[in-house]
Design brief:
The complex is a heterodimer of chains A (about 375) and B (about 325).
Chain A: H1 2-37, H2 41-46, E1 56-63, E2 71-73, E3 76-82, E4 89-94, E5 108-110, E6 116-119, E7 124-129, E8 140-147, H3 154-161, H4 165-196, H5 202-212, H6 217-230, H7 237-261, H8 265-273, H9 278-289, H10 291-307, H11 310-316, H12 325-335, H13 340-370
Antiparallel strand pairs in A: 1-8, 2-3, 3-7, 4-8, 5-6, 6-7
Chain B: H1 2-32, H2 40-78, H3 91-98, H4 100-131, H5 137-145, H6 152-163, H7 175-182, H8 196-222, H9 226-234, H10 239-250, H11 252-267, H12 271-276, H13 286-295, H14 301-330
Classes of the chains: A alpha+beta (about 375), B mainly alpha (about 325).
Amino acid sequence: MGGIAGTKARLVWAVNLAALMLVVLWTIPTFGLLVSSFRDRDQIAASGWWRTPFTAESTGFVRAGTAADQQPEGDLFVISGMVLAPGQTLLAWGTSARAPGAFAPGETVALKDGQALSVAADGHYRLTAPQAFTETRGMRIFLTTTTPPRLTTDNYARVIGAEGLGRAFLNTFTVTIPATVIPILIAAFAAYALAWMQFPGRALLIAAVVGLLVVPLQLALIPLLKLHNDIGLGKGYMGIWLAHTGFGLPLAIYLLRNYMVGLPREIIESARVDGATEFQIFRRIILPLSFPALASFAIFQFLWVWNDLLVATVFLGNSQAQLVMTGVLRELLGSRGGDWEILAASAFVSIAVPLLVFFAMQKYLVRGLLAGSVKGG
Amino acid sequence: MEQLAFATGTIVAGVFACVAWFWGSNWLLDAVFPARGPQAGANILRANMIRPWLFIGPAVGFLAVYLVYPVLNSVWRSLHDAAGHDWVGLENYAWLVRDAKFREAIWNNMLWLAVVPALATLFGLLAAQITDRIRWGNVAKSFIFMPMAISFVGAGVIWKFIYDYRPEGQAQIGLLNAIWTGLGQAPETWLTLPFWNNFFLMAVLIWIQTGFAMVILSAALRGIPEETIEAAILDGANPWQVFFRIKVPQIWGTIAVVWTTITIVVLKVFDIVFVMTNGQWGTQVLANLMYDWMFRGAPDYGRGSAIALVIMALVTPIMVWNIRNARKEMR
């Protein structure tokens, strides 16, 4: 018996460990983005995000003051100032790119023409010369410094204000909310008819809805854009709401019909016998009972519209005032690919709302999936 | 602020218009064919024939305009020249067959088809089996499922931090290169590595889709009758045998559904390639190629539509299969 128990305990351990590994693997990419978005611009570029809690060592240069900054001091001319940013510690310094760490803090080094430079450990430098300085560009002082780990929310402040993400956030909301609400209404009525009303062609319509579930969206873009232009709708919110409504309807009708068909027949029949009209049955009985299905489709549609790039690019246009967040992100990826802090913060702002919705409403999302969703991107 | 008011106004107007249509048309129908008076019976019959179409009318209208019409229109466009003026017959399709970029795209799509659904389903099955057996399974599921809520563009940014490249000697800030150089190798520019870069793009989609597979398969696994498993254990089956011989065969149907759903996603994959490589370095796929022809430089709607129809043709078998399954369920 002991042997079996031992194997079992080991198996439990192995399963827990495997689960932990999966979770870590699947979370690490997002976690890396989250951490990066709070890091300093220089630190992101200098070390991997997993080194955030450690002191980072970096090499760079700052420029000393110019002739305009010099002060006479006895028979010497002096330029002085500070080379370190708050929090930095000086490890070594130098005067040429070839030997950026040649001198220790506190050392004084003789330069050409009787000039001398010293950089103290606290970062104050002092450049002296027997005759007046004439340089209009300060000389370069190379520094090897360590910076303690620092987290900041500056990136977020910057992207929401200056980078136009705040505006895009509003645009995305403006696109998403009506594009979620309108299809639900239309689909709910249709689903009720397909589930509980008898009429010729019903089976055909259901088959058509299932078939339309998989029509590639890409196919629809050009014909619809032309159509919108022809009827004077052009590019704008109205167009994108209508488009998302059309694209979302098959899944909405399919999900809702599947759910409504499962509602108890007796309730509906007895309501009919009592003389309730179809409209009353729908409003008083079906709609309240279908809440879980309505909620799961609402989440699907919300996530899908919020995360969509293609439909927004085509139907909304690409001017700054019209871009949704996925569009802004795409532009940033293209033009500001090197500005990691902006990219990371923007990406996190854009995925924050879907993640919130996801974690808050996961129950309904899962239920919707299990009801047999077959919609892809 | 103005924009918010505008959006709120539309929601209210849209909801009001919908309700007004459904309520108003029903009221009108009852007014025209009142269910009382000498012709009550005939009126009720007539009203009942019309009413379903009032309920379903707007939906049918939307589906016709936004999905059926575009399909037909695309067929027409694919048989015409770039601007849609002159009939060219099958010239666009002939061009496709000759075009090297198209061959590359279709080959890559096949590669995606072979790898992504298989791996996503496999990882999903694995994750489902593992998380169902531990106490913190639901938390674990949440985290594995989470990437589903992230946009493909967002995922592109997230994975940029994984695949980033710095020249040798500098500190690597991409996780993959950090591990790679940690193993004593020279850093690689992963996304330009011929052939293999496709797999690095696929990893992103697998990462997103595994959670979906896991959720569905986990429900299916829990639906397996306990007796079959207990019987197998009593007969001395080890955990592996129970899983592969008893459990998996009982959920083949669900696995097929998951597989085909992911297959559809893969056939339409666009955003990931669009934002991460834009089809450069041998990573072109059909949807992105179509976007190129339709919206880049001088648009050629004929060729773009032809590519779109190829995607449609690839999806059609799955569509037929779906419809047949749905009809079977209805009986």
